[in-house]
Amino acid sequence: MSEDPPTWPVTSYCVISVITLPIYILVLVCLLRLRLTSKNYNTTFYTLLLQHCIADLLSMAMFITLNLGRFVYFIRQFYFNYQEYYIAAAAYNHIYFTLYIRCTGIILLSFQRYFAIVHTSTTVAKKIQKASKLKIMAVYWILPVLISLVVLKNTDFYYGSIEKMETIADHSVIQRNTLMSLIVVGSTCILCIVAYGGLLLFIRKNSKYLPTSSRREISLAAQIFVLLLSFFGILVFDCFQNYFSQTHNTERIFYMRRIYPLLNGILSYINPYCILFLNRDLSKEIIRMVFCKKAKQDSKIKKVLKNKVALRSINHTIRIAKTTAGTARYR
C-alpha cells in the first residue's frame, strides 16, 4: 500500500517564508544601501555575501513560482497545458541549479575567510582582496552555470496528472542527477571543512596575539560557518535520494521530494539570521535603517566631504574677495 507524501514540510516552508522573506529583503536592501556610502561594505567578502543573498532569493522565487504556484488552480492549469515549453523541466532542474549556485558561494566565502585571516599578507590573499566586483560576480555565477549545464540540458519531463502535478522523469536522469548532487554537495562540505579546519588550527595557535581587526574577521567566519551547517542537512538528504534512485524505489523518491522544500527553506533562510545575530556591524546598520537613522560613513568619506566643503568655502571666499576688489577699483 502506497504511503501518502507528508504535507507538513510544504506548510512549514510557507510559514518560514512569510516570516523570513521580508527580513531577508530588508537585509539585502540595507546591504545595497551601505555599499553606496561605505567602503567597508565594498570588500570581496561583502560582494560575495551579496551574491549569495541574491542566489538565495532567486532560489526562493523560482521555487515559489514553479512549485508552490501549482497549488493555485489557474496556474496549475497553465503549467499543465504548456508543460512541454520547459515548464515541467524547470520545475525539476531549477532545484539542482540553485543548489549548485549556493554550493559555489559557500566554498568561495569559506576560502575567502581562510585567506583573509590565515594568509593575510600573501600574494593570493591580496589579489582576492583587491579583485574587482565584476570578476568576483563572474566567478560566483559562471562556475555553477557550467556545472549545471549537465542538468539544464534535460528537457524530457512531464507532469503525471493535473491533480497531483508530480514531475515525472526518466529513471536514468534521476539516477545521474541525484548522484551528481551528492558529489557536488559532498565536495562542498569537504572543501569547506578543510578551510575551516586550517582556520581553527590558526586561531588555536595564535589566539593570544590576534589583533582586534582579526577578531572581527573571525566573527564573520563564524557567520559563514553556521551557514555551512545547513549544507550538511542537504548532504544527508542527497544520500537518501541517491540510495532510493539506485534501488529504483520510486515511491520513496517522491516521498523525499516532499521533504525537500523545508530543507531548501532552511538552506536559504538561515542566512539573514546569521547576519543579524553574528554580524554586529551590519546588524547595527540594519537597525539604524529600520528606525530611519542615517548610516555611518567611513572616516575617509567624511574627510573627502569635509575637504569638499572646505574647498567650496575657500572658493566662495576668493570670489567675494575678487568682487570686492573689483568694486573698489571702479570707485
List keywords for this structure.
331 residues; mainly alpha; Rhopdopsin 7-helix transmembrane proteins; 2 domains; GPCR_Rhodpsn_7TM; G-protein coupled receptors family 1 profile domain-containing protein; transmembrane; transmembrane helix
Major pleated sheet: 2 strands, antiparallel
Radius of gyration: 26 Å
Corresponding CATH architecture of the largest domain: Up-down Bundle
Query: Which strands sit side by side, in order, in the main sheet?
Result: 1-2
Shape: globular
Which CATH C-level class of the largest domain is it?
A: Mainly Alpha
How many β-strand stretches? 2
* Uncertain parts: none
Percentage beta strand: under 5%
Estimated helix fraction: over 70%
Going by CATH, what is the homologous superfamily of the largest domain? Rhodopsin 7-helix transmembrane proteins
The assigned structural class equals: mainly alpha
Number of domains: 2
CATH fold-level label of the largest domain? Rhopdopsin 7-helix transmembrane proteins
Mean model confidence by pLDDT: 86
Distance between the termini: 110 Å
Counting DSSP H or I runs of 4 or more residues, the number of helices is 11
- Series of secondary-structure elements, N-terminal to C-terminal: HHHHHHEEHHHHH
Give me the secondary-structure topology:
Blueprint: H1 8-37, H2 44-66, H3 73-81, H4 83-117, H5 123-130, H6 133-152, E1 157-159, E2 167-169, H7 171-206, H8 212-246, H9 250-278, H10 280-290, H11 299-330
Antiparallel strand pairs: 1-2
Helix pairs in contact: 1-2, 1-9, 1-10, 2-4, 2-6, 2-9, 3-4, 4-6, 4-7, 4-8, 7-8, 8-9, 9-10
Organism: Caenorhabditis remanei
InterPro entries: 7TM_GPCR_serpentine_rcpt_Srv (IPR019426), GPCR_Rhodpsn_7TM (IPR017452), Neuropeptide-GPCR (IPR052665)
Keywords: Membrane, Transmembrane, Transmembrane helix
